[in-house]
Amino acid sequence: MELHISLVGRKDLGGEIYRQLRRAILEGQLRPGDPLPPSRELARQLTVSRTTVTGVYDRLAGEGFVTARMGAGTVVSEHLAPAQSRPKNKRIGDSLRARAIWDAIQLPTVLAKPVRFDFRSGLPDATLFPHDTWRQLMARQLRLEAKGTIVYDSPAGNRRLREAIARHIGVSRGVEASADDVIVTNGTQQALDVIARALLSPGDHIAIENPGYRPARWAFAALGLRVRGVAVDHDGLDVAALPKQARAVYVTPSHQYPLGVSMTLPRRLALLAWADRHNTAIIEDDYDSEFRFGGRPIEPLRMLDRTGRVIYVGSFSKTLLPTLRLGFIVVPPSLREAMHKSKFVADWHTSTTIQAVLAHFIDGGGFARHIRKAREVYRVRHRMIVDTLSRDFSDHLTVVPSATGLHIAAAARTASAEQISGVVLRAFESGVAVQELSKFGVDLPGPPGLLLGYGAIPTARIEDGLRRLRSCFNH
Ligand SMILES: Cc1ncc(COP(=O)(O)O)c(C=O)c1O
Fold first, then answer.
1. pLDDT tens digit sequence for 416-456
2. Ligand 1 centroid – CA 46 distance (Å)
3. CATH no., domain 108-123+369-474
């Protein structure tokens, strides 16, 4: 079985791992004779030190739960009778309607052990965030709120913010929308949940890119949808491979996650034509589009759509901070009311304080200035990584061309997914965090390769980090 351990706090990590392993043994998820993951591997997966994991294994061994076997690693002790390893009474959790769905979802693990060279994808540079301006706007907003009466707000969100978002996407992406079309959400993740709840029923098929964005897959699966992976090539989603039962298609056309390719115009038109023929909705996730380092951007699907079937989703997680949990949906008029209700039943509305602060930040020009500044920093990092990979890693990796966003994908030339796993493990041991492309597959593993983000790593550390990564291939 695949063992999932989630660390969501930063305290007593060893204790938390110990309790989860012990529970897995007592409840029979791990049976007598089952191997525990090698300590090195588990340490890397959970980003804790190896000593923490070996400490846990020693404690479990001391208590008789596991046995260390020469050459076979650590296994669950054989002498634990099956009766002992099964709970006597059913727990309430055993009757969860969709046990398999929750078992398949992996909670993100906090990076408990700081790594010196952090190339993980999906993170912006928090040091670029204009904390001082934000703090002033927040203080002003709280002073204002102290004088007024608090009321629940509209599920669609703060009017001023929706106007600001409509203007922003008009300028940056050419998306024509009015404030009435915009719904503010707690990030893309909630946007996908709100959209799917409004639009689809359990059992409906939804197509997503393969490899693709796993949190999207899990959001859809958790609603009881049948998630179908569709291949991606250098032109983006393979439209010809779409299953005709799909009632919705989720895509990342401006910067495919994780490969980074941009969907070509012919593919975009083919996707729209396919969706028209099959009366399918398209969910366009434009998460990374503000950071473009060259070339002309291709129009969003939303602007090419003539039949009102594209639902556009944006996020402030890359442009500002993922911890703010702010995103938005641009909804076709026919779906507006259902989407408002869907957002309402989810959580009524997004924090009014944070929405008001963001509205002032955008209106005052702070947002546009921040994006311009951050783009220049990321442009340099993008160039450095692409140049170094192309020069020093060409015998091992082929860079997937991309001119947008905060990460680069590089496909393995000959190495298998297991060999790349070994590289990632060795890299982690030497303080370099990178991700494996193969982990982003939908039904089957994705292609072997690496994913390198450059939001979290300071520019000055990139060269050194890549040098260390390079040496991890020489084994
Ligand atoms: C494909 C994709 N969409 C959206 C997001 C942002 O998600 P959220 O707005 O929920 O933070 C990410 C972040 O990594 C992403 O990779």
1. 999 999 999 999 989 999 999 999 988 788 899 999 999 99
2. 21
3. 3.90.1150.10
